[in-house]
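Bench notes, afternoon.
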Amino acid sequence: MSQGMKEYKISSFADLMQALMENPEWLEELRKMILTQELLELPRKFENFRHRMEERFDTLEKRVQEVKKKVDAIERKLDKDVWPLKGMWLEMKVKDNILSFFSEYLLDARAIDQEKINKDLFLAMEKGTISKEERIDALRLDLIIEGTLLNTGEPVLVAVEVSYTIDDFNVQRAINRAKILEKALGKKVLPVVVGYKITKKAQNIIEKEGVLKIVFSE
């Protein structure tokens, strides 16, 4: 035994463990004797493997996110492309079921013939009550209904704008076109918007201006 090295008496496993704890270099030599080189390299290999797996998972996650973004973009585009078709379908449905759609507000509801409205607007334009542009704008209403208000018994016209998603532009169009009809026909006209969804901005205008809304679930 080298000079200065502590002498150990090993008579039990506990003695052996104590000697190894006090001399870590012995423990390393013991490992080399017991374990093969391949086993000794396992921790390093496992660490390398773990890093590779993390890199692959990171790459896979990025690809999944990219695919999700592309799918979301496609869904938004398809939804946007389908909006006009859904709007057209809803407009036809409203025209075919006027009484049921407006029964909450009107005692009796019926669509006004487009030709009659066109003639009345033309006469109002000829008199200078409305402009040519206002006549054209009013004729672009999706539907014009006449009926009697349930709450007051007052006869009214209803200027209807139909859209899949009701936004602030739809609401403002209904308001502007209702005002044109009032001016041209000398009758009370209520603006109404019909759709499946409604934006927050549109809702704010509706509440402020007193526009009627009919919103359905799909």
